[in-house]
Write a structure and sequence with these properties.
Elements lengths: L11 H6 E7 L2 H13 L5 E4 L23 E6 L3 H11 L4 E3 L3
């Protein structure tokens, strides 16, 4: 299995080790977060929880039902969590909301 966003190949063991690092409300900042993390060698995925229509948040699929309009989750492997938080704090600051993990 690979990440649908960045193409990173995941083993079964890796799939169990990913966590939601935080959320971003703005699509350009979500993309920036992923690119910044990747540039630092941190595997990252950004998943839209906004439904099929992105920012307007119409959730026709139960997978997205729990999302808020315009919400994008940032996922990283647990082993990279601290480094990823520091990187996002330094680069995008208050444009992202860290999860309590």
């Amino acid at each position: 299995m690979s990440c649908p966003v960045c193409g990173w190949e995941l083993t079964d063991e890796e799939k169990a080790k990913w966590l939601v690092l935080g959320t971003i409300q703005n699509p350009p900042f979500a993309n920036l977060a992923r690119e910044v993390l990747k540039s630092q060698g941190i595997p990252a995925m950004v998943i839209s929880r906004s439904g099929f229509f992105g920012n307007i948040g119409l959730s026709f699929n139960p997978i997205f039902a729990g999302g808020k309009p315009g919400t994008f989750e940032i996922l990283v492997p647990r082993d990279y969590a601290d480094e990823a938080r520091d990187t996002l704090d330094m680069t995008i600051g208050d444009k992202w909301q860290p999860e309590e993990n």
